[in-house]
Amino acid sequence: MNFSAVITTLPLSSQHLRVYCYVVHDQSVSISGARAHTHREKEHTQRKKEREIFCFMDIHSLLWFRKGLRLHDNPALHKACEGAKYVYPVFVLDPWFLAPDLSAPSPGSSRVGVNRIRFLLQSLKDLDHGLQARGSRLLLLKGDPTSIIPELLKKWNIRRLCFEFDTEPYAQARDNKVKEAALKLGVGVFSPISHTIFDPQETIRKNGGTPPLTYQSFCKLIGKAPVPIGDAPSSIPLPEDFNGAKLVDLPSLNDLGYNNLEQEEYTPFPGGESEALTRLEQSLKDKNWVVEFEKPKGDPTAFIKPATTVLSPYLKFGCLSARLFYTRLKEIYSQSKTYTKPPVSLEGQLLWREFFYTASYGTPNFDRMTGNPICKQIPWKDDDHLLDLWREGRTGFPWIDAAMVQLRKWGWMHHLARHAVACFLTRGDLFVYWEKGRDVFDRLLIDSDWAINNGNWMWLSASSFFYQYHRIYSPLTFGKKYDPQGKFVRHFLPVLKDMPSAYIYEPWTAPLEVQRKARCIIGRDYPKPVVDHSVASKQCMEMMKAAYALDKETEGQPSLEDIDALKKKLQGKQLQTKDATAAGQTKRKNEKESSSSSGRSTKQQRKMTDYK
Ligand SMILES: Cc1cc2nc3c(=O)[nH]c(=O)nc-3n(C[C@H](O)[C@H](O)[C@H](O)COP(=O)(O)OP(=O)(O)OC[C@H]3O[C@@H](n4cnc5c(N)ncnc54)[C@H](O)[C@@H]3O)c2cc1C
User: What is its EC number (predicted)?
Assistant: First the structure.
């Protein structure tokens, strides 16, 4: 047997598909005799031979699900089925992600909160149902996929391994290991792009080898979007015998070791392709809403009926194809004389997703400050106490705390609420490392997405993409503008449910008598504010200014020593965070000044978020 690896474009059911493929060369079908051919002819022969291998042998295909938990618009599934005698649809439950961590700040593993684990289990169940309707089923195994998949290739005599291309560094390392093992076994590997609409590698190539770093330049490069390839075949052939492979049943949370969850409030968004498709149709039913959608105008405090689609967790797990979503939007736009445009439209939102995927794929160390060429080096504080208060929703600012409780309970929050809490933790008030906040989001969000999360945290901390660090959201006035009665706050922070509306966003300013009547004494039942926003935000701006100046001075390459020296210099001006009473004593007048300087008017605040 003699193998070699090539990357090529194969004719699939869709002409638009770029497929990354390790082609097997068996000696019996070797193309070595084609030496005299031109390069193009060689490729042609190669593809012909490859088709011969796959069409005339009894192909066993392994379809490895990771993301892409769907049957619609799934090119890896189509390829697995093409001329196959048997298709083995596999998902590997990896304890690295799933094992409970009792020391974690909330239920879940060290990396994934329980809400997202539950969402995944629901998605797998739904996928299994879909496969059963086609005469197949989902084959579940438990362990490290880099050893399990190669074992299965041998055990099941697999000739073709199919899985969706994944751009994340963790996935790339994992997939490269598996590809290498498959290559050694002479197995053909098909890894099509279907998690994103566009091919990030292709966009980077069109941009001369580096990723476009502005949304506008990205949009100019992408060209026409490929269309979805339709539903899965109506019948997917499953063998009867699995040759002793250790298949497991779909576990419940309890089976995974998550007991004592009675107190937990779960996300109202269940996982699965069926739910994703229903939600897509519901979101697009009101065509006026679709054509008039402008992200910055949405109400981040709307929670009974959120102001956006809440399709992000379905896109994250691939229960919904981004191409399908995009195509459906385009159909609706084509039926309307006018419609909103990117970046604020719904189409624009999907393009933000594509933008961050492309930027992250082409940027080394995209998920950290150090060694990341597009990230400003800022002397953030390494203060776990502040981080804990923020994560637990105990900063004393009801708008921030309610949003953080929503994150913990629902695993989701509106985009502008994400803006508010991310700005507060970093450049707005607490000056804590953006990577720490990113980690909290990464663990708790049901839509947690490596490229989008890191990209947005860099944006919000003014570390990359966005540099107007003096534009700080006020934790006092932002929520109030949308929800003056504080319904959102009362729902997620029931301790404040009887606080009069006049004090709901600044309860420490309520006279003691009012606090008593509301059965909520500030400093006892609900915390005093952790900082005085008017002071903290000014200090943050000064620190950002100094960091930007150093960045300029060193032409974007300050050394670790430079950063350290700046950190020390700024220490004298450290934030006043220890004594919350200082903030409690701050006069309302000061707070008003703060909201007019950094809080700004509704109009101005909306303008700040104009980009999305
Ligand atoms: C600090 C921070 C962290 C974030 N982390 C994530 C994350 O881990 N995963 C995630 O999916 N989104 C993240 N976002 C982006 C955005 O907030 C969510 O995608 C959006 O709120 C999801 O709700 P939706 O599906 O109703 O969005 P809609 O407004 O209905 O948009 C439709 C889809 O477009 C995409 N989209 C929307 N906004 C953005 C954006 N700003 N950047 C990239 N894609 C976007 C999403 O896939 C979304 O589902 C983050 C934003 C911020 C400010």
Answer: 4.1.99.13
Domain that holds residue 61: 1-252+270-362
Contact between residue 106 and residue 166 where contact means Cβ atoms under 8 Å apart: no
pLDDT of residue 384: 96
Per-residue pLDDT at 415: 98
CATH code at 524? 1.10.579.10
In this structure, the number of other CB atoms found within 10 A of the CB of residue 545 comes to: 12
Residue 464 confidence (pLDDT)? 98
Q: What is the pLDDT of residue 167?
A: 97
Single out the residue in 297, 328, 362 at which a domain terminates.
362
Question: What is residue 612's predicted lDDT score, i.e. its pLDDT?
Answer: 42
Output the residue whose Cα is nearest ligand 1's atom 21: 415
Distance of CA 354 to the CA centre of its chain: 11
Q: Tokens 């919000």 belong to which residue?
A: 460
With respect to residue 579, please indicate whether it lies within any of the assigned structural domains: yes
- How much is the pLDDT for 591? 43
Q: How far apart are CA 479 and CA 189, in angstroms?
A: 50
Q: Please tell me whether 448 is known to bind a ligand.
A: yes
| pTM for this prediction | 0.88
Q: Which residues contact 43 (CB under 8 A, 6 or more apart)?
A: 8
Cα separation, 69 vs 599, in Å, equals: 42
In the predicted model, residues of the chain with pLDDT beneath 70 are: 1-57, 572-612
Among all chains, which residue has been given the structure tokens 């707070």? Answer: 591
Ligand 1 centroid to Cα of residue 415, in Å, is: 6
Distance of alpha carbon 457 from alpha carbon 433, whole angstroms: 10
